From TrEMBL:
Pfam families reported in the protein's UniProt record: Acetyltransf_3
Homology family: Belongs to the acetyltransferase family. RimJ subfamily.
Domain of life of the source: Bacteria
Keyword Transferase: yes
Entry keyword Acyltransferase: yes
Name the UniProt record assigns to this protein: N-acetyltransferase
Annotated Gene Ontology cellular component terms: cytoplasm
Entry GO MF terms: protein-N-terminal-alanine acetyltransferase activity
Annotated N-acetyltransferase domain residues: 14-187
Listed SUPFAM superfamilies: Acyl-CoA N-acyltransferases (Nat) (SSF55729)
Species the sequence originates in: Kitasatospora xanthocidica
Keywords for this protein: Acyltransferase, Transferase
Length: 208
């Protein structure tokens, strides 16, 4: 079981909290409005063997049931991103591995209407801080399509290192897509990721 879940993380007007079945209406409304905005970055299911059609996408409730099961098993932290009381996106810490690796990966999306306001950098900083300082993970990885400039700027601003490219890494928007790998270990952010982001937001940091 995951002793670090469920949890709510707060920084100013940004909140990360567990995704819930009762978020369905609000989540689906935000997802519907942003369908075109998100399609280029959204994971898809590849066709099966011999060109068999891909399976049907899960329903919202099936998705939440799966995410909650993974969270209970200690393999995932499935958050929604809330800004000023409104659901505006999703952030998932996935692939949590313990033992000699102690690592995880982060994926996220945000409503186009509030993009560029520092919401996702704040959410990433909150989740990284929690993973390093509370859960005791050692490494966080974020994989991003090279064409996704706004998402790349989020992790570059926070000081993630680029580790190169993974060719045809994930099935996105109907095909296998290359991804850039960004990573960070806890030793690289001794001041704490949230403290780093606060300094950057206030103009005291040195990163662009």
């Amino acid at each position: 079981m995951n002793a670090g879940w469920p949890v709510e993380l707060h920084e100013g007007e940004v909140v990360l909290r567990p995704i819930r079945a009762r978020d369905q209406r609000e989540w689906q409304e935000v997802s519907r409005r942003n369908r075109d905005w998100l399609r280029r970055w959204e994971a898809t299911v590849p066709p099966g063997p011999a060109g068999q059609a891909a399976g049907a996408r899960p329903t919202y409730r099936q998705m939440v049931r799966f995410l909650r099961g993974e969270a209970s098993a200690g393999r995932m932290l499935p958050f929604v991103v809330v800004h000023k009381g409104q659901l505006v996106g999703q952030l998932t810490v996935g692939g949590i591995t313990w033992g000699s690796m102690c690592s995880a990966n982060i994926g996220y999306w945000v409503d186009e209407e509030v993009a560029g306001r520092g919401i996702i950098p704040t959410a990433v900083a909150l989740s990284v801080n929690y993973c390093f300082r509370t859960l005791g993970l050692h490494r966080i990885e974020v994989c991003i399509r090279p064409e996704n400039g706004p998402s790349r700027r989020v992790v570059e601003k926070l000081g993630f290192r680029s580790e190169g490219i993974r060719p045809r890494y994930l099935h996105i928007d109907g095909d296998w897509r290359d991804h850039l790998v960004y990573a960070l270990t806890d030793e690289e952010v001794p001041e704490g990721m949230l403290e780093r982001w606060r300094a950057l937001s206030s103009g005291r940091g040195t990163r662009n």
